[in-house]
């Protein structure tokens, strides 16, 4: 059955892979992203998708996007509240307050705006699925990454709470917790954490590999596999869960 799928932070990385995979199975996809160039590339490569520039922390921009999505799709079956940012790295006493606020705003406030919109429609429909992107950092403490960790723990809390609020009307809410995901964003994180910790980039990569049972990184397609499963009839009784796709994290510190 064709589903109407909306993805925030959908023009690159995990979000773009989610958009591509949902579209490949025949779903109608709408996405937003703050990166104008990335959105333009999606529009060129995937004219079948509705792709718009919008900053998830700007209520007016997001409402304009949601209004257009509502008119184009007539509703929403799956929301992937995926937008996030790595935030700064450093000891808590050295962090800049504006950078802290920016990290929290994208992950937490942006997820709130997307979930509020979807919840209103899904409650009316009596059905729907919300998938939030958290992180294994939302399950463990990570030195030098307190803003990111706080934001991702916040998303876990939202997942649990919204599952309770919306479950009685037939709406499921889950989160996907990626481990270390191959790609440009993770390379930037490695560079940032290496600088903050005084280690080399190679040493930081080794920490991530050593920290999970499978001794490997994951790919965006592994995360999309989980999202597609959650959006399938096979997962109709799964709600309020944080689905880690991480090779089984044993430790975030080494």
UniProtKB/TrEMBL annotation:
E.C. number(s) listed in UniProt: 1.1.1.30
Molecular function in Gene Ontology: 3-hydroxybutyrate dehydrogenase activity
Keywords: Oxidoreductase
Entry keyword Oxidoreductase: yes
Pfam family, one: adh_short_C2
Top-level taxonomic group: Bacteria
InterPro entries: NAD(P)-bd_dom_sf (IPR036291), Sc_DH/Rdtase_CS (IPR020904), SDR_fam (IPR002347)
Family in the record: Belongs to the short-chain dehydrogenases/reductases (SDR) family.
Protein name: 3-ketoacyl-ACP reductase
Classification lineage: Bacteria, Pseudomonadati, Pseudomonadota, Alphaproteobacteria, Rhodobacterales
């Amino acid at each position: 059955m064709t589903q109407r799928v909306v993805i925030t932070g959908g023009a690159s990385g995990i979000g773009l892979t989610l958009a591509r995979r949902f579209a490949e199975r025949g779903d109608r996809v709408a996405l937003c992203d703050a990166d104008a160039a990335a959105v333009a590339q999606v529009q060129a490569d995937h004219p079948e998708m509705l792709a718009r520039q919008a900053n998830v922390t700007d209520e007016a921009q997001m409402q304009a996007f949601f209004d257009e999505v509502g008119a184009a799709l007539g509703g929403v079956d799956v929301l992937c509240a995926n937008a996030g940012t790595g935030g700064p790295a450093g000891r808590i006493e050295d962090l800049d307050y504006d950078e802290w606020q920016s990290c929290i705003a994208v992950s937490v406030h942006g997820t709130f705006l997307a979930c509020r919109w979807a919840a209103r429609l899904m409650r009316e429909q009596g059905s729907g699925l919300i998938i939030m992107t958290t992180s294994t950092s939302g399950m463990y403490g990570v030195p030098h990454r307190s803003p990111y960790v706080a934001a991702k723990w916040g998303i876990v809390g939202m997942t649990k709470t919204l599952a309770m609020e919306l479950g009685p009307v037939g709406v499921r809410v889950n989160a996907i917790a990626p481990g270390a995901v191959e790609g440009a964003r993770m390379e930037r994180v490695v560079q940032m954490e290496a600088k903050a910790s005084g280690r080399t980039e190679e040493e930081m990569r080794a920490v991530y590999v050593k920290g999970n049972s499978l001794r490997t990184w994951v790919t965006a397609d592994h995360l999309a596999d989980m999202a597609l499963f959650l959006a399938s009839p096979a997962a109709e009784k799964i709600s309020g869960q944080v689905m880690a796709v991480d090779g089984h994290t044993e430790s975030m510190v080494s």
